[in-house]
Amino acid sequence: LTQDVQRGYTVAMLIPKSAESNGRYLAYIRSLPCEKCGSVPPCEAHHQPAIGHGSMGSKCSDYRAIPLCSSCHHILHTVGRHTFWSSRNVEETIFRLQVGFFFCDL
Question: What's the pTM?
Answer without folding.
Answer: 0.72
